[in-house]
Amino acid sequence: xxxxxxxxxxxxxxxxxxxxxxxxxxxxxxxxxxxxxxxxxxxxxxxxxxxxxxxxxxxxxxxxxxxxxxxxxxxxxxxxxxxxxxxxxxxxxxxxxxxxxxxxxxxxxxxxxxxxxxxxxxxxxxxxxxxxxxxxxxxxxxxxxxxxxxxxxxxxxxxxxxxxxxxxxxxxxxxxxxxxxxxxxxxxxxxxxxxxxxxxxxxxxxxxxxxxxxxxxxxxxxxxxxxxxxxxxxxxxxxxxxxxxxxxxxxxxxxxxxxxxxxxxxxxxxxxxxxxxxxxxxxxxxxxxxxxxxxxxxxxxxxxxxxxxxxxxxxxxxxxxxxxxxxxxxxxxxxxxxxxxxxxxxxxxxxxxxxxxxxxxxxxxxxxxxxxxxxxxxxxxxxxxxxxxxxxxxxxxxxxxxx
Length: 403
Hints:
Elements: H1 6-19, E1 36-40, E2 43-46, H2 47-61, E3 67-68, H3 70-96, H4 103-117, H5 121-130, H6 135-156, H7 164-173, E4 179-180, E5 183-191, H8 205-220, H9 225-232, E6 243-248, H10 249-255, H11 258-266, E7 276-277, E8 283-292, E9 296-297, H12 300-329, E10 333-335, H13 336-343, E11 366-367
Parallel strand pairs: 3-11
Antiparallel strand pairs: 1-2, 1-10, 4-9, 5-6, 5-8, 7-8
Helix pairs in contact: 1-4, 1-6, 2-3, 3-6, 3-12, 4-6, 7-12, 10-11
């Protein structure tokens, strides 16, 4: 079952989701014209900021992150820059539509993300320092992200809901796939022996085993499972009272070791397991919330809401893709980095030396050339069109613990 160091991952999501948006603005001290990678309607995107993003992502990868060759660095810069150009064009479109969030909205959004990460304020500040950002910088970046989200929501709000005829047509054409599979609905309390920097963190296997047994004893003595999960689980699922969703029998067998999957299906509704240690060292206490003994065909009434959501989501993805294309196409963009690489293929357009290509102290091997190297997470507008999965797959929850 795979490890999920939730506190670091959650903060990384906060940082990486917004730090790429900070790449644009006025040229700062010590940054000359040769630092400009691109301009979007006159707003500069500096190479130094692109390198900061790549460097942070390499650090997030840990000791396994490869040393970048000049070729790999050039490929990574182009990929990151493409994303930043798109985001700057979208932000400027949001500015034009007067969709910039207030300071109070930004503050509230940041606090919500910190709470959802399961971290204390002290833990958050420490992680922020590790990523080399101040809270004010992060708020500034988050304001840009929220503005783009407001723009996307404004445009997609105009999409009409699918008609009953459209939904019934989809239902009639996909009846064979609209099957509620045999399976179980689970909750999970997780105790991780790693140092997650969280409150009530059990560090080391002995402490983790002891905490897991304490939790199992408390629930066995009458404590509410979901309440204990929110208070003591060392996983993001604790925010939902430990709920990890519905697992079909097939998914159950793919996610958990065979003996664990078999035992989970044999539980009675409301029953929980004793602490189980997975291969990654984490301890799990599962509770069976529901069970479907046999698969069954779903009626239109049972799946109409899911069909409506699926059709609407597909339409949103198409509209958001079009919005991104339009924002970029109508902007006055100059990609100086690409121009430099084409003009100087012998040096890959290196605008200035970069420490990212310097030999690493740990002796890591150079990274192979890849156009996907150090690419940042895609924005919502750039995501691929949603695939029609149908309601048969709508119960799949975030995978809590892989083999």
